[in-house]
Amino acid sequence: MNNTLSQQIQKRARDLGFELVGITPAEQSQTIQRYRQWIENGYAGKMGYLERHLPLKEDTRRLLQEAKSIISLAMNYYTIDTPKALAENPSRGQISRYAWGDDYHDVIRERLLDLVDFIKTTGEDQLKSRVFVDSGPVLEREYAQKAKLGWIGKNTNLINWRSGSWYFLAEVLVSIDLVSKDLGGETETLRGSCGTCTKCLEACPTDAFIEPNVLDSRLCISYLTIELKDSIPKELRSKMGNLIFGCDICQEVCPWNSKAVSTGEPAFQPRDGNLAPELLSLVNMTQAEFSEKYRGSPIKRAKRRGFLRNVIVAIGNWGSRAAVPALRKALVDDEPLIRGHAAWALGQIGGKQAEQALHAQLQQENDAEVISEIQDALQNSNDKNLGTNKSTNSHYN
Ligand code: SF4
Ligand code: SF4
User: Fold this and answer.
1) Are 74 and 95 in contact (CB under 8 A)?
2) Is a pLDDT exceeding 50 seen at residue 181?
3) Which of 77, 145, 281, 378 gives the lowest tally of CB atoms within 10 Å of its CB?
């Protein structure tokens, strides 16, 4: 056991911007069976890499044979709150907080490598190590909880009793036996719990929680807008509101996040245009414009086709006829995924112009899925027209 080195590591990690640091022994995962069951239940959706990572996730020593300790770290990304009037404006899109700034993978990885360099300078020049940020095959919340960084809430996020859950998690596996307790000199006890609260479970717009702490990704808007590469299931589109990249709802409602303190980290401050952007400013972006706008941003993960698909769903939910010209353009995009969703959105809006565009595209469309979307959209628009005779039109028009 080497307390002094552990304390030095903690101090260095804090200096590098990690607010929470803890250490656990590198040993077999204790939650792997539960995780395996979650995958077998199909809750991972089309994230096949999660299943492929299973053998590695069983034991971190499969990632680094010499690993003796896991340094668990968390970096705060909470910055500001979007003004309510903007967040709730259906002509604007909402992007998940974690994606407002620079790509955290790049930012955090650099800091982790700095931490490794530091450890080597303490006389550990033979150190073997591996660093992971979010996407690695590590059950990071399990180790973070074990390292007393927080507990895993009913919303499946790691929550710290002092400062909530707006954290990026990261790990450094090291070949040194470090103390397996909090590094603050005094032993941290794990505090806080969800208790009888169920706010996150109730607030989820798609009812994605099967039970507390069990999420069906296939229903989660974060999965639908980022991980899913195909069409968004029609029955879920209207529940997505104006969420165009990720979803923060089950964290926004969490009472523990009222304790969140803004980070001063420049890399995580909202980039221009990422705070409630106008949907019409995004929907006709070319590939070159998309690449330029989201260079070095987590948003690039969705790729142009996925991101525009999300924007178009939000436009359909907005339901304004002001969007018809932009959707007409999207309806002839090279990408079938975009054309299909544009058809759906036009069907949601309805009206003569929308129907004309749908009919025109139906004549020349050759993708079976898009044809089906257009036919459904025309039917939907027709139903809407009939309904309009009896009731008022959308209040967004
Ligand atoms: Fe539901 Fe959104 Fe939370 Fe996913 S991120 S579980 S959609 S509230
Ligand atoms: Fe737990 Fe309530 Fe937060 Fe959900 S909203 S994670 S139940 S404290």
Assistant:
1) no
2) no
3) 281
* pTM exceeding 0.70: yes
Structural domains in the chain, CATH included, are 3-78+102-174 (no CATH), 278-390 (1.25.10.10)
Asked if residue 292 has pLDDT above 50, the reply is: yes
DSSP alpha helix (H) spans, 122-177: 140-146
Closest Cα to atom 2, ligand 1: which residue? 247
Task: Give the C-alpha distances (Å, rounded to integers) separating 395 from 234, 242, 311, 318, 349.
Answer: 22, 16, 20, 10, 11
Locate all alpha helices (DSSP H) within the chain, ordered by sequence.
Answer: 3-15, 32-40, 48-52, 54-57, 84-87, 104-121, 140-146, 199-203, 221-222, 234-237, 249-252, 287-293, 303-318, 324-330, 336-349, 352-364, 368-390
Mean pLDDT, residues 111-130: 97
Sign of the Cα pseudo-torsion (155, 157, 162, 167, in order): negative
CA–centroid distance, 249 to ligand 2, in Å, is 11
Q: Which ligand is nearest to the CA of 158?
A: 2
> Rounded mean pLDDT of 190-217?
95
Residue 190: count other Cβ atoms within 10 Å of its Cβ.
Answer: 15
Query: Is residue 114 among the annotated active site residues?
Result: no
219 has a pLDDT exceeding 80: yes
Q: Evaluate if residue 393 carries a pLDDT over 80.
A: no
Which residues' Cβ are closer than 6 Å to ligand 2?
153-155, 194, 197-200, 253-256
Look up tokens 């990261």; give the residue.
170
Six-digit token pair at 35? 């995780």
- Asked if residue 395 has pLDDT above 80, the reply is no
